[in-house]
Design brief:
Blueprint (H helix, E strand, L loop, with lengths): L1 E6 L3 H12 L4 E4 L16 E3 L15 H12 L5 H10 L3 H7 L4 E2 L12 E4 L2 H16 L2 E3 L3 E8 L2 E9 L2 E12 L8 H8 L7 E2 L8 H8 L4 E2 L5 E7 L20 E3 L14 H4 L3 H6 L6 E6 L14 E3 L2 H8 L3 H14 L34 E13 L2 E2 L6 E3 L5 E7 L17 H22 L1
Parallel strand pairs: 1-2, 1-9, 2-6, 9-19, 10-16
Antiparallel strand pairs: 3-5, 4-5, 7-8, 8-9, 11-17, 12-16, 13-14, 14-16, 15-16, 18-19
Helix pairs in contact: 1-5, 1-12, 10-11
Length: 459
């Protein structure tokens, strides 16, 4: 019998396990992935978004609660649980210090991400280093960890968890605990579930993160009477390189040059304003936009002026000396792509181009317009990146309260079930995404879930 059982192995799960253990509880972590692939999507992360009133550590200037909230409202359109969202924003001010106490180190923003130096703290060594630090700390505190352990059944009666059945190395085991923390991610790696929500277009989706986020724990909680929040079609969906692997390609497959050129579909037609806002505030809309195009494919087109001004992805661009040649390599209609580029070039208005600010270099008389960073595509060589929808995590999840307790169908909190991370992020993220906020949600609610679970078992 353990005090606290944590299901999951990423940032939220480890934050919960560490917090519960530091609060005096015995803790077991069940991670479905093998040890070499532990950490869920946290392995691929780079940073978290932090409120701060003054410069601190690697963060510059200040990023107030109200500015954070305004940025958040722009991407979610108000589709959020405001008390939970504001709580996460306020408590994000403590994230860096707490993480450093767990052995995590930070670094200044890298070239190509300098505009995030005020809002986002970057992990030294990236997500893998973050995960390794959290596991080292958890193990040093006496947290027990079982890898390759997939939970098959949860025993819950009248909102009270008693035990879980899990399989490991072909054998079934039952573990009893006084409290449960579910931190096992969304259902994004479950293609049949995605197809139920999206239809057959989901066959063309690429899953950026772990293949182990199959939604099993979410499904089990739903079957046992947990209340859900979120739309199953809402998710963190990014335009990534169409040549990426089906699973686990991570952040290096993201294509960050969308705002520096134009994006066309398979008919060589533009379909959205590429300059609507800074990339960290708008990159997560492009997965859904590409998903809405024929065959769920798009192409980011730039010229040589843009090269070197964005974080390069892992795959090299398709390169050609003319737009017509580029179209041929992409198997697009050459005349149609030439016409689209010529129409765009003719609509670009004079201005002082500066990709570091909202420069208002825009088009005129063009539909859709480009409202910032509009610059003629006219200097060879020309480059293109093929794009597919890259799903990071889904927003359908379990409802929670400010103590991270799972809410049941009768709108009452469960007695001893808590949730953290992607499995409950839909409480805060009704739609859209803000760079780094997923890690913020996981860290804050992981800490809360662990502390509250320990408090419950010690009461």
């Amino acid at each position: 019998m353990y005090d606290v059982l944590v299901i999951g192995g990423g940032n939220a799960a480890l934050c919960a396990a560490i917090s519960a253990r530091r609060s005096g509880a015995s803790v077991l972590v069940l991670e479905s992935a093998p040890k070499d692939f532990r950490g869920g999507n946290s392995r691929h992360t780079r940073n978290l978004r932090c409120m701060h009133k003054a410069p601190m550590a690697v963060l510059t200037d200040a990023y107030t609660e109200e500015e954070y909230w305004e940025d958040f409202m722009k991407v979610t359109g108000g589709m959020t649980n405001e008390p939970l969202a504001r709580m996460a924003i306020r408590q994000s001010e403590t994230c860096m210090q707490w993480m450093m106490q767990q052995g995590i180190r930070f670094q200044p923003s890298l070239g190509g991400t300098l505009h995030l130096s005020r809002t986002n703290a970057f992990f030294l060594g990236g997500g893998k280093a973050l995960v390794n630090a959290l596991y080292r700390t958890a193990e040093s505190l006496g947290v027990e960890i079982e890898y390759g352990s997939e939970v098959r059944e949860l025993k819950i009666t009248d909102g009270r968890f008693t035990s879980a059945l899990f399989s490991r190395r072909g054998f079934s085991h039952e573990v009893r605990a006084k409290a449960l923390v579910a931190a096992s991610g969304g259902f994004q790696a479950n293609i049949p579930w995605l197809k139920k929500a999206w239809g057959d277009v989901a066959e063309n989706f690429i899953i950026r993160g772990t293949p182990y986020s199959n939604g099993n724990i979410l499904r089990l909680l739903m079957e046992q009477g947990a209340k859900t929040v979120g739309d199953p079609t809402q998710c963190h969906a990014v335009a990534i390189d169409a040549r990426a692997p089906r699973f686990d390609g991570g952040i290096i497959t993201r294509v960050d040059c969308v705002s520096l050129g134009i994006v066309v579909n398979k008919n060589a037609q533009r379909f959205y304003d590429e300059g609507e806002d800074f990339w960290p505030k708008r990159y997560a809309i492009w997965g859904r936009l590409v998903a809405g195009q024929p065959d769920q494919i798009g192409y980011s087109i730039i010229d040589s002026k843009a090269m070197g001004t964005f974080m390069p992805p892992v795959f090299p661009p398709v390169e050609a000396n003319s737009i017509r040649e580029l179209a041929g390599l992409l198997k697009l209609d050459p005349a149609a792509l030439e016409a689209t580029v010529n129409e765009f070039n003719g609509a670009v208005q004079p201005g002082a181009f500066d990709h570091a600010i909202m420069d208002k270099c825009a088009t005129a008389g063009l539909t859709p317009p480009k409202t910032n960073w509009a610059r003629r595509i006219d200097k060879p060589p020309f480059y293109a990146y093929p794009l597919r929808p890259g799903i990071t995590f889904t927003y359908l999840g379990v409802a929670v309260n400010e103590s991270a307790k799972v809410i049941m169908q009768d709108d009452k909190p469960s007695k001893n079930i808590y949730a953290a991370g992607e499995i409950m992020a839909g409480n805060i993220l009704g739609k859209g995404y803000l760079a780094g906020i997923g890690m913020t949600i996981g860290t804050i609610f992981g800490r809360i879930a662990g502390e509250e679970a320990a408090r419950y078992v010690k009461a």
